[in-house]
Amino acid sequence: MEMQHFLIYLLVFLCGVLAYYLAQRLLNSLNKNESKRPPKTMDAAVIRQMVANYRSNHLSAISKVLGIEDAQSVSFCLKTLKNFIADIEFYTKKVNPRITESALGIRFYYAAYPKEEQLKNLESEKLIGKNYAEKHTLVMIPTLKIKNANGNFLDYDFNPLDSSTYTRNERNLDQPIQMMAMTSNEDQSREVMAQNHGQLIPPAQIDQQSY
Question: Which of 17, 133, 151, 201 is 20–30 Å from 35 (CA)?
Fold first, then answer.
C-alpha cells in the first residue's frame, strides 16, 4: 500500500514539474514575441519615387543603348532565401564554429544573363529560358567580416565551402578584392556558394508589380 501511495505521489510530482516547465516555455515564448522589434518599413511614396528614378534613367538608358527590354525587378521565394541563408550558416559553422551570425552577410551583385547564343551553352539553359537572355539579374554571394590592414572589419566575399577564403591573408593585399578571390587562375572553373535566377519582370507579367 505504501508503495502505491509513493508511486501516486511521484506521478503527481512529475506531472506538476511538467506543467510548470510547459507554463514557463509558454510564458517565455509570449515575452519573446512581445519584445520583438517593430518591422522595418519605408514610405510607399519614397519607394515609388526611387523605382521611377531607375525606370526613367537607368532602364531608359539601357533600352536606348542596348535596344533590349530589360528586367525591372527580380523576386525570390521565401523558401529559397531561407535555404540559402541556412546553408551559409551551416557550412560556415562546419568549417569554423567560432564565426558568429553577426559576422555573416550577403552581397547582391548586379549582373546580366549572357546573349541567347551563349545562354544555350550553359547547363542551366533549360532552367533559365532564352527569354532571360541579356536581362538584368542579381547574384547573391556570402560575405564574412574580416579585419583589413587598417584594423577595420569589412565585409569580404567568401565561399563557406572553401576554408581558404575565410582569412584575408590568402589574398593579394596590393590588388583590389575580386569576387570570391579564391584562385589566381581566372581560367579555372570553381564551384562557389551563390544564389541566382529569381523571377524577372519582364519576361514575367508587369502587372505583378505594385511599384
Answer: 17
Q: Does residue 197 sit within a domain?
A: yes
pTM equals: 0.71
Q: Which three cell numbers stand for residue 164?
A: 581558404
- Amino acid at residue number 48: R
* Count of domains forming the chain: 1
The three-state secondary structure class of 36 is coil
pLDDT at 105 over 70: yes
Whether omega for the bond prior to residue 203 falls within 30 degrees of 0, making it cis, is: yes
Structural domain includes residue 175 = yes
> Which domain range does residue 154 map to?
71-208
Q: Of the candidates 82, 112, 81, which has an alpha carbon nearest to the alpha carbon of residue 200?
A: 112
The whole-angstrom separation of Cα 106 and Cα 199 is 19
Q: Given this model, what pLDDT does residue 184 score?
A: 43
Measured between its terminal Cα atoms, the distance across the chain in Å is: 76
Q: Quote the CA–CA distance of 197 and 193 in Å, as a whole number.
A: 14
Q: 161 in a domain, yes or no?
A: yes
On the 0-12 / 13-18 / 19+ scale of CB atoms within 10 A, 171 is middle
Neighbours of 170 (CB within 10 A): 13
Is the model more confident about 18 or about 107? 107
Nearest to 146 by CA among 134, 158, 160: 158
CB-based contacts of 211: which residues, under 8 Å, 6+ apart?
44, 47, 48, 51
Say yes or no to pLDDT of 161 above 80: yes
User: 162: closest CA among 130, 192, 199, 120?
Assistant: 192
